[in-house]
Amino acid sequence: MLDFLSPYWPHIVFVLSVVMGATAAIHVAMTKEEVRSAVGWVGVILLSPIVGALLYLIAGINRVRRKVIFNRRRLRQGGVLAHLDNYDADDISVAMEFGRRFLAMKTLGDRVARHPMTSSNEIQLLDGGDAAYEEMLSAISAAKRSVILETYIFDRDRIGRRFVATLGEAVARGVQVRVLIDAVGARYSVPSVLGMLKDVGIRVAVFNGNVIVGLRQPYANLRTHRKIMIVDGAVAFTGGMNIREDFSRTCKGEGCAIDTHFRITGAVVADLFAIAAEDWHYASDEILDGEEWQIAAPAHAPGHAKLIRAVASGPDRSVETNHKMLMGAFSVARSNIRIVSPYFLPDRELISAMATAARRGVVVDIVVPASNNLTLVDRAMTAQFDQVLKGHCRLWRASGPFNHSKLLVVDGRWAYVGSSNMDPRSHRLNFEVDLEVFDIPFAEDLERRIDRSIETASRVSLEQLRARPFAVRLFERILWLGSPYL
């Protein structure tokens, strides 16, 4: 057989390259919404026969098509929360308390996000890993019915082992426990924590792949970056915190990394559960709809307390939802925009929106770490600092340990916190979850935290950037070209 085909291998390769290249190029033209991305991929496919098509299969197909099986209607039909609609925020109260421009933000969220703005919520800021982990572990220890935990990284270290032990004790008490870890994030520890979790009876699933065999194709570049934990359908935890000892001062001392997490109760817990349960079903095929997964009724009457929306983003039907929310927030700002981001690589649209706000007289402060845990990402984002500074925004390098927090406040009234970084990966490739919060005390608390960071930060200037050696700046620009996939 091989002897028969050997004279024809050039013809076979040619036909294969044409078929694969044409198929990939057609898929690019029909599915990509950004013309620069489409042109780039077509160029790669045409200039690299076969190899270009394979690269596109691995890294270029961004949408996961999956059924949305968990939503408000399903929760109501199951009796989980029969009067959930009563907790949806109304336009009149938002306009009266926050003004018509922030009513426009609610309208934007209603149209681009899958979940409504809800009332009767409480949100507690958990400062640093020790505070967040203790609250989460205490909640697991008190669990009576169920725990679902979704995370990007779950390390097999001292903090990870504490979670494994506490979750195992919950299983022993009869609590239903589910743990979902991203396939890429699970590889941060060798060996992974999966075996330890299974050994204590915990049901575990891996998102988009298998830790041993490899990643699920053609979605190898798509990850769940979400951090969600729901206990007894009553209390939720979300934010930027992975499960690893790098964020624990007890384990790592004063030089530990900094992060911000949040403890939430109220009507929005149902939506956070819906997001996590949908991801669990996608990875395991199990539907979490038994009595143990019912959502507890909020402690407050409808219309009470903080207004919060759960904003899910991802390369499915929620693609770029977080990006759209940021564009809207920058457009309604009048006095200030305060941003904290560990990986600041906004696309041209976001840079233009920030610069336009700054040119209108809005004070735009962007705080990034002086020391970063990802050197290549830090170099890439430094390469585009000049674009932000030319737009009259102020850029600060925060001193001290690496800060992994993702915080945004507009005019001291509207806040946006969660797992999303301000980079192309979070906006187009990762599955993310954020909270849109309408609450003046909460926003002011975040602003005070940002002010404290700025007090000890160094301001970045165009003169400083241009004074660096040409070779350094060229190297950073080369890295910047690959920033969408860093």
Automatic annotation (TrEMBL):
GN (gene name): cls
Pfam family, one: PLDc_2
UniProt name for this protein: Cardiolipin synthase
NCBIfam families reported for this sequence: bac_cardiolipin (TIGR04265)
Function, as annotated: Could be a virulence factor.
Species the sequence originates in: Rhizobium lemnae
Protein's membrane topology: Multi-pass membrane protein
Domain PLD phosphodiesterase: 220-247, 399-426
CDD domains for the chain: PLDc_CLS_unchar2_2
Annotated EC: 2.7.8.-
Origin organism lineage: Bacteria, Pseudomonadati, Pseudomonadota, Alphaproteobacteria, Hyphomicrobiales
Sorted UniProt keywords: Cell membrane, Lipid biosynthesis, Lipid metabolism, Membrane, Phospholipid biosynthesis, Phospholipid metabolism, Repeat, Secreted, Transferase, Transmembrane, Transmembrane helix
Compartments, record wording: Cell membrane; Secreted
